[in-house]
Each structure stands twice: as C-alpha cells, then as structure tokens.
Amino acid sequence: MQTIKQMKQFMEPHSVALIGVSRDTGEGSFNILEHLLSYGYQGRIYPVNPNATEILGVKAYSSITEVTEDIDLAVIATPRALVPRLVKECSDSNIRSVIVVAQGFADASDDQGRQLQQELTDIVQSSNTRILGPNTFGTANAFFNFSTSFVRIRMKKQPIGIICQTGVFFVGFPEATLVGKGIDLGNACDIHFAEGLEYFENDPEINVIALHIEGAHDTKTLIDTARRITPKKPVLAFKTGRSEQAAKAAQSHTGSLVGRSEVWEASLKQVGIIQAGDLQEFIDLAGTFAILPPMQKPGVGVVTISGALGIVAIDGCQQFSLETGELSANTEKLLGAMAPSWLRISNPVDIWPAMMGSQDVVKPMVDGLEALLSDDALGAVLYIGAAFDDKWATSLCQLLIGLAAAHQDKPLTCCIYGPYGDEAIKVLQESGKVAGFRTPERAIRALARLSQYSRLRGIL
Amino acid sequence: MQTIKQMKQFMEPHSVALIGVSRDTGEGSFNILEHLLSYGYQGRIYPVNPNATEILGVKAYSSITEVTEDIDLAVIATPRALVPRLVKECSDSNIRSVIVVAQGFADASDDQGRQLQQELTDIVQSSNTRILGPNTFGTANAFFNFSTSFVRIRMKKQPIGIICQTGVFFVGFPEATLVGKGIDLGNACDIHFAEGLEYFENDPEINVIALHIEGAHDTKTLIDTARRITPKKPVLAFKTGRSEQAAKAAQSHTGSLVGRSEVWEASLKQVGIIQAGDLQEFIDLAGTFAILPPMQKPGVGVVTISGALGIVAIDGCQQFSLETGELSANTEKLLGAMAPSWLRISNPVDIWPAMMGSQDVVKPMVDGLEALLSDDALGAVLYIGAAFDDKWATSLCQLLIGLAAAHQDKPLTCCIYGPYGDEAIKVLQESGKVAGFRTPERAIRALARLSQYSRLRGIL
User: Fold this and answer.
1) Which of A185, A429, B26, B43 is the most buried (most CB within 10 A)?
2) What topology is assigned to A295-456 in CATH?
C-alpha cells in the first residue's frame, strides 16, 4: 500500500513543482508548464526559474525552498550537474516524489555521469524521497489530465498502462497512443518496473499492462510481481536489446544491463507475460488486450469479402498456431441459403458472392457475421473487408460495433483494407469493442496471443 | 513481341466494350463505365446492355455485334451462364482481348463452373482471342487513366506493376496502393503470370514487378521469364496458400492448384525473386523497391532521436541479417563535435542530446544525416524520428527529401512515429525519394531485402 500511495504522487499529484522550466513558450520550446496547462490539469503548479516572476500567467519561484505549500511532486529539468543539489533541496522541503528529466547520468559514457547518478541513489537511500529517472519523460495520466512530458503528448482515456524506458511511447504512434497511463523509468535509479506494476495491479481504469524492457535492475521483483498479476490482468512485454551490440547501445541509452535474451524470454514466459516479437506486434497487442474479452473456444471463424485474404488468414493461422474453427451445421445451413449454389461453404467464409447476389449488398455480410458470432463452436471472429469510400467506412463501422456490442463475450477483430481502411480501423479501435488491423496476419497474430493468455487464465 | 502487343490491348486499349454494364449508377452500383469516365479515360467506350439506349450520356448497344468500329478490348460482366456465348460473339467480331469479370467458373464447387471454364479455354484454343480471367477485376493503368475494376479504385502514376490473383490489390491499402499498373489474373484460364511479366519487363514506367501468387498453371514459364527479368528489374513475390487448408481454399477462390510451398519458395529464390513473408512485408517491399537505389555497401547507418528505437533497429538488423555499419573516423569526429562530451558516438547515432543542446534544434539532425549519407563506409541510412505536430512533420519531410535528392545513390529510409507520423510517411513515400515506415524493424527488413537484391545484381 505504501508503494501505491507513493506512485499516486507520481501519477495523480495534487500539486507539482516544475524546476528549471523555461520562459520560452510556443512551438519547439518543449515547455512542460505550457503542455500541462493545455491538458487541463487541475492541480496547483509551481514553476521554479530564478530568472522569472511568472510564466504563462503562473507565479514563478526562484527556488523550491521559497514555496511554502505542500508539494506532491517535483519535476527537475536542468543541466545534469545541478540535479543532485536540487533533489536534495526537494527532499529537505519534504517533497517525497521527484522526476529527473535531465540526461547524462548512467546513460553517459563519462565518469561524471556515473557519479551523478550515484549521488541520486545516495539521496534516495538516506531520505524518504523517491526518484523517477533520471533521463525520463516522467509520467502521464489521461484520466487525470496530467503529464510531465516535455514533448506535448496526446493521451487517451483508454485502459492501457505502459511502463517503459523511453519517451517514444509517450509521443505515440500514428495509429495509436498506448498511453492511457504511462510511466517512463528512464535510467531507473530508484522507481522501477515493480512499483509501476503494483500501481496498475488493481487500477480499475487499466485493463492491460504493457512493459517496454531494455534491462532491469530489479529483475526478480519484476518477475515476482508480474507472477501475482497475470492471473488477474494481462501483462505484455516488448524486450529489446537482444543482440550483443544492442546490449551495448542500451548501456548508453538508459545505463541498463540487459541480460541474456533467452533468460529473459524464459522468465517472462514462466510468469504468464505475453511477449511481443517486435514493435508493431507490441502496439497491436496492447490495442487488442485493452478491449477484447478472452477466448472461450480455440477456433476462429473468418468472414471475408476477399477470397484471397481469406487464404492469407489461413496462412496466418498456420504461422501463429491458431485454429480456424469448424462451422457448426446450423451456421453452414444459414450461410448456404444466402450464397449462390455453386459456392462451397467453409471457414473462411467468402461472403462476396452472396453480397453481389443480394438487393441489400451488406445484409449477407451482417447475417454471416451474426451467424459466426452466435456459433458456439467458435472462440473468436475475424472480419476481412474493405472501406471503399467514406460513407461505406462509416456504415461498416456502425454495423461492426453493433455486432460486437451484441456479442460481448466473443472477441471480434477486423482487417480493413481499401482507401478508407485506416479511418475505419481507428473508429473501430476507439469504440472499445472491435480490434482493427491493416492485414489479416496481424489480426491473427493478436488473436493467437489472446488465445495463449486465455489458456493461461484457464478460460480456454 | 506478339505477347506485348496483345497485353497492350488489355492495358492500354484505345477502345473498350463493356458488356453487361448496368444502368444503375452512383454509390454501391459498381458501374465500370462510371468509374472509367471518372478516371478521365480518353479511348472510345461502347456500353452493351440490351435494356438501354444510353448510359451516362454514352450511346449503348444491345449487342456487341451491333458495333461496327474496331474494338481493342471487351469486358464481360454478366451472369456466368451467358459468358461463353458472349466471348464467342467477341471473337466473331474480331475482338482479340476479352476480360471476364464474372465469377462461378473454376472457382465454383459445381460441375457447371468447371464446364463453363472449359468452354472458355476451348474458345481461346480455337481462335485468336485471348482471355483475362474469369473471376477478375481485370486491369488497371494509372499512366493511361484506365481500369476495368468494378470497384472504383485509386491508381497512382508510380513505378509498381502488380500481377495478382485478387482484386484486393486494386482496391488498395490505407497507406498504399500498389497499382501503378495492375493485372488481376483471376482464375487465369488463359493470360497468366508470364504474359504479365513480359509486358512489364521492358516497361520504362515500371521499376518493380510485384507478384501475388496463389497458384499457377504456367509455373515453368513463370520461373523462366522471371529468371530473365530479375537481373534487370526487381521481381517480388507474395506466395499464399501455404498450408493444406489454405490450398483447399485457393482451389475455391481462383481454382488454383497451389503446389507445395517449399518447392515454390526454392524455385522463386533460385531465379532471384525476392519473397515477402506476409502481406505487410509485400506492401513495404513494393514501396521500397519502387523508389530506392540498390545498396553498394553492406552496412546501414542509423540516426535516431530515440535511443530506445536505435536499440530496436539493432535488434531488427540481427533478426534480418543486416549489418549496422562502422562509422568512418571522419564521421565520428563530425558527430562528436555536435554532441555533449558525455555522449559516446557510435552507430546508431543518438542525435537527441545534440539537438537539445543546439540553438537550431533540427540542425544536428540534418548535419548528422548528411555525415552518414556522405560516409563511403555505409550502404544505406535509416532515420528514426518523430512528427510531433503538423508543422514539424512538414519541415521534417522537406529536409529528408532534400537530403535524399542530394544523395541519390544511397538508399534513405525513415521510421516516423508521433501523431503526425503517418502523414509524414505518406509525403516521404510519394516524393519517390525516401521510403517511410512505422517501425524500425519494418524499415530494416525492407533494407535487408534490398541488400539481398543488390547482392544478386552484383552491385553489392
């Protein structure tokens, strides 16, 4: 409980001091205060800058020691050499939580960097103050309109909690931000994976915990904590720094000792952490686990408007060891009644000929999906279709979201191609009901990991 | 030459008859005539529909036999049972090229389908008329404002020629259309891969030929033709239908006998065809080979604003057997002068600390890329950066395109994340100078295949 209380100061502070915040504002100035105001953060803010009396209308202080009110969190963004003294001042001012944004500590190649990081560690050990960083974007919390990132970020109130060793996940990706809540450990001189995991463990706003791991100083605690969580909540991991050369680079990125990758892989697997093989899969899986229920049967049913992509889906199932399910007799009968007589009904279901033969072109698609979603023999459904134009994309999404809402116990994934595919994928994903992908293999890979986790949970 | 002349009738017809074209127009009517007019096609068009005297202001005919002018190409989109008679009429009217859009031939599970396809084959054998299809979208040619697709498609004058067994590639993908020119073989009762390859072989508008192969009846000719082409022009392949179940599905999709996947893989490799493992890679590779020059040295230099993604790039290099190159002493010196003293200079080059220490935040990035692009020890360069906002994305793209233009002999790839990453990637790709990707591993995978092809050509 002590840890959670502490982590709340980092994630949901009611007051924050911004030490070293610049007077420069506007594009390219990377001003944390400016961003914080733009998010609509409701807590008290204390900019600390000896050369300013106010910044953006907020009263500024020349030193943290001048602030008399209680402060939950201090964020330090100054040249590295000043940092230990400033942290000490925070500690003396009874500030328990400090984020050190500055770079050039264990991530540096020089002795001074290592020494400075040691000084931070010493302060932590001799006080009640805890440090996140150095070399970090800090934290982000969409549910609290709060982030310490010096890059203005886009958060979304989505149930993904990420713990990472880079600001990349805060900045986000074109198709997805993974930051509902985010913790960038940076060099992790103190706060580490275990603390983050514990904070997210019983957080009702978070459905999935995503870990970007370069290396960890607390491997055993990380593993032990994860073991406790995975039976309740999915934990994903993207372990980087696999080769010797990458390990060397990680040393100078966050001062991490990465450890042997096979050992990591085995340890993570053993405690039920689902591992992503690359960044694209990590993004895909976070989006999938955030919104889809577990699978209760192993087989996946596919409805496709493209026979060719149905075949690609089967190839994907073979590659990722996922079963394409057998359709029940009733489903086959239903589908057979819609299709031209010459079409063989099987899974994947090629629905295009039925659509072309129907007055209402989308009715066979909806009926086909309804049949598969209702088929007890199947554990999940993949729809493969195109968004030919804007209007088509909109009505397609409405139909799919409606179908998913009516079948909340069965995961529905989609692969949408065509010029408006991306927009459709985004709408589906943001509905919180349907996971959308650009290619069939990516959808199948995500379902394969979902089935893996469902098995671990004993649901499948 | 006979083949090329024939293929020109399919790809660049000066006159086209649309047999069975509907009077319905507007959204959801899938009207080929309407699409053709919207593309700005300049040839003569003859709609054939016994129930119309004109469609969209174009004079309609009740039968192809009524048309007295020469016709290069006929497109037949009617119920399957009518098709053989209509093809026969075309042949009797001296039309040498016919596209059969209709489904339900070898792709059907019934005897009638197989028999109808046999009738088409018989007509081909006993006449001078050649058939593309049945069960096809036909052809598309952005350079000629022409397509027979019944779905309105977006073509782009880009140097990609695709030969496929599905309309999916005509409809396209959110991030990319692969159709500069496209040939959908459908069931391939007559026109097959070899004819398409021959057409693209010396086509100056096409830099890369992309094959989507479910199965082929002309495997030997395909392989022999490709062997002749790959030393001049890259040929990519995405072979689907790898599992037994997928093979069965391919049978009912295009009536294809897919053959054993290991045999395919070995044969394609032997003649220098670059193979994509999944749909995402196929899309990525087509975009890359269309615009990038070959690699002349094996090593790739990486400039990154994210240390974490630099590490991911190294992991990617290990996975796809691509070398990260050693920087020359001169490059190290140049980069060292920009960076803070504590930063170890190595490849990947973490440029962020230099950017943060510079008055002009992007100058170190540009100088760093310039140094790597000029470094004779490196064969290609990957830039990893973010598009934080719209303005940043725009100026980033300008800089990157300018750098690529100044170093046309060295492939420049980029991974752009951040909220405006997709837009930046699109602008880069459309410049025809820089290949853009969402993740480092995808960029590295594409470069690995490019280096593989450069080796085959003896350039590397």
Assistant:
1) A185
2) Rossmann fold (3.40.50)
User: pLDDT by residue (tens digit) across A117-128?
Assistant: 999 999 999 999
pLDDT value at residue A385? 97
Q: Domain residues of chain B, as ranges?
A: 2-288, 294-456
**Residues in chain A within 8 Å Cβ distance of B340:** 104, 108
A152:B389 CB<8 A: yes
Locate A301 and state its tokens: 């049913």
- The mean pLDDT value of chain B amounts to 94
CB A73: neighbour CB atoms within 10 A?
27
Under an 8 A CB cutoff, do B308 and A253 touch?
A: yes
Using the structure block, give the residue that is written with the tokens 């190294």: B314
Instruction: Write out the CATH class of domain B294-456.
Output: alpha beta
Q: Which residue of B has its CA nearest to A171?
A: B418
Residue of B34, B306, B311 to mutate when probing chain A, most A C-beta within 10 A: B311
Contacts of A319 in chain B (CB under 8 A): 278
Computed on alpha carbons and rounded to an integer, the radius of gyration of chain A in Å comes to 25
Mean pLDDT of chain A, nearest integer: 94
Strand partners of residue B147: B140
State ipTM: 0.94
Using DSSP's 3-state secondary structure scheme, residue A279 falls into helix
Rounded to the nearest 10 degrees, how much is the dihedral formed by the CA atoms of A221, A223, A226, A230?
-160
pLDDT in tens, B233-283: 999 999 999 877 777 777 777 776 667 888 899 999 999 999 999 999 999
Q: Which pLDDT score, from 0 to 100, does residue B254 have?
A: 73
Fold designation for A2-288: Rossmann fold (3.40.50)
Q: Which pTM does this prediction carry?
A: 0.95
